[in-house]
Specification:
The chain has about 325 residues and is an alpha+beta fold. Helix content is about 35%, strand content about 25%.
């Protein structure tokens, strides 16, 4: 079963989170493989998306935010976009859009950053928005300050946290066909909440970036964790091997009903809203060509079909709606 563990280092301004996605990750892969149009992900895509899923889960669990955290990577390689969405209760979904073939040895830049135009975006979309409120989004390139491509997702996200949040962060990520796992170690801000909502961080905190002896020691230990160990070992063994000389307080693990889990919030009503946004003329063109409008959810694979009568009801309902009333949800 999937599980998430939080812990702090006693007396030190350092916290950690470790996640292992098993059943949740396997379900994402199985739904993709069962789609006759797309088929299973190539190994490099699967590993990248798995690392993204583990990372997004770690980040969502590490902030106090009532809304969806969406992690995206997009660019100009065969992987046009990869998306992970994690809700506050750690329900999650993930997908990648792939055009063409991906070599078994493909790197991150070869998949999404062929011309050094790739980007990574982290979006926080509040569940309840104030009038005029827009989701918060931070974007970083998939290359370093010298223009060199970054080949590890963990390095991209560490760069994001340092640049956008002024927080020293160490990430270790790994994924295969049965497990997506990650370890996050982060120096706590001296003032402010220092989270992904873009809150102010004190000048003192900014000046001490990279200068914490305790954080640097723990980060070095965390960075020694090998991919094979992260995928194969249980949480107790990993923490004991890495931090056996440190005093750690562990919190109640999130397992069972509280664990990260696959969930998709697509619905027929949402698809109807999308068809409405196409406009009557385009919808009628699709119906004339195919006899029905068929839409498959990219996250879960559920097929939604609308015949001419269904489509007519969508636009008739929209025409009859009283001005000022909400759209279809």
């Amino acid at each position: 079963m999937s599980e998430l563990h939080k812990f702090i280092f006693d007396g030190l301004p350092v916290r950690g989170v470790l996640v292992r996605l098993t059943d949740a990750w396997v379900e994402i892969l199985q739904r993709r493989a069962s789609n006759s149009e797309t088929g299973a992900y190539a190994k490099p895509v699967r590993e990248m998306l798995g690392e993204m899923t583990a990372a997004a889960t770690l980040m969502q669990s590490n902030i106090k935010f009532d809304g969806a955290l969406v992690l995206q990577i997009f660019g100009d390689g065969p992987v046009k976009v990869a998306v992970v969405e994690v809700l506050p209760d750690l329900s999650l979904r993930a997908t990648a859009t792939v055009t063409g073939s991906v070599a078994e040895s493909a790197t991150l830049s070869q998949m999404v950053n062929a011309s050094n135009q790739g980007k990574c975006a982290i979006t926080l979309d509040p569940k309840t928005k104030f009038p005029g409120q827009q989701p918060y989004q931070g974007v970083v390139p998939l290359f370093d300050d010298n223009g060199r491509p970054i080949e590890k997702l963990s390095a991209v996200l560490e760069h994001y946290m340092l640049q956008s949040e002024q927080l020293d962060t160490t990430l270790v990520l790994a994924a295969n066909e049965s497990v997506a796992a990650g370890l996050l170690v982060q120096r706590l801000p001296l003032e402010g909440t220092g989270n992904l909502e873009g809150s102010l961080v004190s000048r003192e905190n900014e000046d001490l970036i990279g200068l914490s002896e305790h954080y640097n020691r723990i980060a070095t230990l965390a960075g020694s964790l090998k991919r094979e160990e992260l995928l194969a070992l249980d949480v107790d063994t990993i923490l004991r091997r890495l931090f056996w000389e440190e005093q750690i307080t562990r919190f109640e693990p999130q397992t069972g009903d509280m664990a990260p889990r696959f969930s998709c919030n697509c619905s027929r009503a949402r698809v109807a809203k999308m068809i409405l946004s196409l406009g009557r003329e385009e919808a009628e063109g699709l119906l004339a060509e195919r006899g029905e409008i068929e839409v498959a959810c990219e996250f879960c694979g559920v097929q939604y079909r609308f015949d001419p009568v269904d489509a007519a009801e969508i636009f008739t309902s929209a025409d009859q709606r009283v001005p000022g009333t909400p759209d279809i949800h």
